[in-house]
Each structure stands twice: as structure tokens, then as C-alpha cells.
Amino acid sequence: MKILLRAVAIAMTVVTIGCSSGPDESSVGPxxxxxxxxxxxxxxxxxxxxxxxFTIVAADGDTSGTxxxxxxxxxxxxxxxxxxxxxxxxxxxxxxNPVVVDGLEPGMHRFVVVLGDGxxxxxxxxxxxxxxxxVAA
Length: 137
Fold this sequence. Notes:
Blueprint: H1 2-18, E1 32-34, E2 38-40, E3 44-49, E4 55-56, E5 67-74, E6 91-94, E7 99-101, E8 107-116, E9 128-135
Parallel strand pairs: 2-9, 4-5
Antiparallel strand pairs: 1-3, 3-7, 5-6, 5-8, 8-9
């Protein structure tokens, strides 16, 4: 009987974890990122597609998890899900599509795109990522 009760308790815990009501990795899909694999100059154009059912808007305070904007992390790892995305060098906050990243040095560059809500908090764990080689003009 104790074994059966323990199994039921474990199953209930898994169901509770799996049924979170807030936006998470399972409720917000990844961002699709397309770019040329090699570019000449110092700019890379990232063509982005948000997940189905997600609307790209300027930061407006909405924390529903269904609207937000792009955050491009250039040659750095993104913040953890739920963390505030800072405004600093190497992080682009944008509603533009495509997002153009200028001023790049020649070499390989990694771009990680995540979604942020109206308060600039990262939504879910999903992201899009691409590496592009930049060649001097």
C-alpha cells in the first residue's frame, strides 16, 4: 500500500509541474533565425519568425507571454528564462524584422535570439541561434 501511495504522489507531482499556468518553454516555441552563413562587410541581417500565436510588439508592460519583442545576444549567452534582459553592449532589443547587426569585426559570430515580454523579462527557455562568418570587404 505504501508503494502505491508513493507512486500516486510522484505522479501528482509530475502532473503539477507539467501544468504550469505561466508562459514557459512548452508554451512558447522557438524563434526561427535565418541569415547568410557568410557575409562580406561588417553587417549581418537576421530574418526572424516568432513562434505561432506570438505577436511582436514594443515593450508595453504586457507579461501575458503572448506578446513581446526580440532580443539578440551577440557573441554571448542569453540570460536565464524569467531574468530581466539588460540594455547593454552585445544585446539588441528590437521589434524590427530583419534585425541588422552592424559594426562586426571579421570572424565567426554567434547570434542567439530570445523573446522578452513587455518588462524585458525573458520568456521561456526557447531560442533561435545561428553562427555567421563575417569577411572584411
